[in-house]
Amino acid sequence: MKVLLVLYDAGSHAQDEPKLLGCTENELGIRKWLEDQGHELVTTSDKEGPNSELDKHIVDAEVIITTPFHPGYISRERIEKAKNLKLCITAGVGSDHIDLTAANEHKIAVLEVTGSNVTSVAEHVVMTILVLVRNFVPAHDQYVNGGWDVAAVAKDSYDIEGKVIGTVGVGRIGSRVLQRLKPFDPKELLYFDYQPLAPELEKQIGARRVDKLEDMLAQCDIVTINCPLHESTRGLFNKELISKMKQGAWLVNTARGAICVAEDVADAVKSGQLRGYGGDVSYPQRKSHPHPRTPRAKLEEPRGLGQSPSRRRHTPLPTI
Ligand SMILES: NC(=O)C1=CN([C@@H]2O[C@H](COP(=O)(O)OP(=O)(O)OC[C@H]3O[C@@H](n4cnc5c(N)ncnc54)[C@H](O)[C@@H]3O)[C@@H](O)[C@H]2O)C=CC1
């Protein structure tokens, strides 16, 4: 079989750390195994535009493996060119880079490595919540730039303790986020999901399920998004839904940027409706991009759309 692997280039970092597997140099550690079985492996990071290596090799590949970190977008157009394709594997969680309807119609199986990095994401969510709520990045920026205005930092620095925190999606990541937040002694942990937690886990965490998303958002000081990107979550957090959130709440979205409408989040941060946002952001599609969906892009700085500046002086959190 011809296996096409689409990963990011790591350069010298791949040598520094041979366990950095998700890169073109280390190839998920599967080259020897595949070749010993008689398969052909083609690895590339070149995935954009009609003349990309991805487009060149997709025509006769039988298996495509890619990751959400440097996704090879498998659009309908590409699927229609891929006459031998039987299997798309996501080396990670979340297969929104694949046109699932087209894959289904062409009887192409889509598999992902369920549970593969859920602890990392859950820890990242807790870190992002702390960074935002403790107002860490502006304090750090101020300090490394040679200043120290303690009042400017302290006025926007809060505790997680005593807050109401809710997750949209309580699967492998969402449930781990709640478990990790419990020791911070929040006022309440809430979740919105079609599927309830197992009763023992719900009891152990002390979480409460809320049937309607808007009802949960209206109660939360902090909201974390941990559901997949699909047709009913794309652009879910738009102006209207954000307006249902508590004034001055924090929003953390490490799931997929396209679940939030970037411009609406930016406006909400500017107006103080949101006190801060952390996580992924999607920007509108570039013209040259062959995939019909919005590509993901990270904001340059980890503060995301960030804390709204002096505006927050006028929007204190009611629960403090
Ligand atoms: N930033 C990152 O590095 C990573 C992000 N992710 C994202 O996180 C998502 C969740 O991952 P897991 O927890 O492992 O998946 P999971 O399948 O264990 O849990 C997803 C949960 O979301 C729920 N859900 C689906 N649609 C929903 C909706 N509209 N509203 C509320 N809940 C909904 C499901 O019922 C399920 O309980 C992935 O699909 C992926 O997009 C996953 C891994 C890494």
TrEMBL record:
Signal peptide: none annotated. The keyword Oxidoreductase applies. Residues 286-296, 310-320 have a biased composition (Basic residues). One of its GO terms (cellular component) is cytosol. The keyword Isomerase does not apply. SUPFAM superfamilies: Formate/glycerate dehydrogenase catalytic domain-like, NAD(P)-binding Rossmann-fold domains. Keywords: NAD, Oxidoreductase. Residues 127-292 form the D-isomer specific 2-hydroxyacid dehydrogenase NAD-binding domain. Residues 277-320 are annotated as: Disordered. PROSITE patterns: D_2_HYDROXYACID_DH_1 (PS00065), D_2_HYDROXYACID_DH_2 (PS00670), D_2_HYDROXYACID_DH_3 (PS00671). It comes from the Eukaryota. One of its GO terms (molecular function) is oxidoreductase activity, acting on the CH-OH group of donors, NAD or NADP as acceptor. NCBIfam families: PRK07574.1. This is Formate dehydrogenase (NAD+). The lineage of its organism: Eukaryota, Fungi, Dikarya, Ascomycota, Saccharomycotina.
